[in-house]
Amino acid sequence: MLIGELAERAGTSPRTLRYYEEHGLIHPSRDANGYRQYDDGELRVVHEIRTLLADGFGVDDIKPFVACLRAGNSAGHVCPDSAMVLRRRLAEVDGYLARLTEVQQRLRDQLKEIKCQMTP
Amino acid sequence: MLIGELAERAGTSPRTLRYYEEHGLIHPSRDANGYRQYDDGELRVVHEIRTLLADGFGVDDIKPFVACLRAGNSAGHVCPDSAMVLRRRLAEVDGYLARLTEVQQRLRDQLKEIKCQMTP
DNA sequence: CCTTGCCTTGACGCCGACGTCAGGGCCTAA
DNA sequence: TTAGGCCCTGACGTCGGCGTCAAGGCAAGG
């Protein structure tokens, strides 16, 4: 499978796949002409990468998950290294949620204050 | 008041104040030597700006609040233009909270799954 | 042979709120 | 006079996940 086909099957672009490779997430072999060659398993890996990115992980955080998948595990998050990253990210998310909730409350309060002035 | 003093009183840097000016949020007068001169009221304005930035507003979003304050209102958010921005930002925050909560749930599920495997 | 369409590497652009030099002027105290 | 400390403008660096253009090679159909 060439890069264009994998990109389409994964719902992304060749540029994106080269970017993942550049950052050590995937290691395709090469054809005689220099073209990248991917086997079917890489589709699963790319999906894992994209899911994690969508969940806010950084590229470096994702490496353990990919390694875990390649080691033959059923999912990328069942390895100890992955678990550490998961816990770190969960703590981050908890923090963001707390701060965002505060902001949300302030915004609501200010909007409520305006409505009160509308009907004095 | 020179830029350094205002910066210190506002808990920020001269560079930051110049940045705000560059983006039309403050308009200090100039001394004969070209130095920026701020009156005491600007401290209040800068605090408003920093609070809004901390709440995730962009520089452009903040302009109505500053204008509202300068118009003599007790707070920057009591004007109609500010209210529109407030509603937009609240909708954004609601969206972020929803997505982050989903992520949080997925992360918890994955961590739970690992613990279950620890004690088979 | 030529066009078309895939592939390659390299490198700049984006966004936003500044940090951080670089190079130079103003003012004051010793 | 000079050293230090403030001020000025201008401009590049930061972070991340790519988009996008540039310049060129490889393969296949007409």
UniProtKB/TrEMBL annotation, chains A, B:
Keyword field: DNA-binding, Transcription, Transcription regulation
Signal peptide (residue range): none
Superkingdom, taxonomy of origin: Bacteria
InterPro entries: DNA-bd_dom_put_sf, MerR-type_HTH_dom, MerR_fam
Annotated Pfam families: MerR_1
Domain annotation HTH merR-type: ranges: 1-68
GO MF annotations, alphabetized: DNA binding; DNA-binding transcription factor activity
PANTHER family xref list: HEAVY METAL-DEPENDENT TRANSCRIPTIONAL REGULATOR HI_0293-RELATED, REDOX-CYCLING DRUG-SENSING TRANSCRIPTIONAL ACTIVATOR SOXR
Protein name: MerR family transcriptional regulator
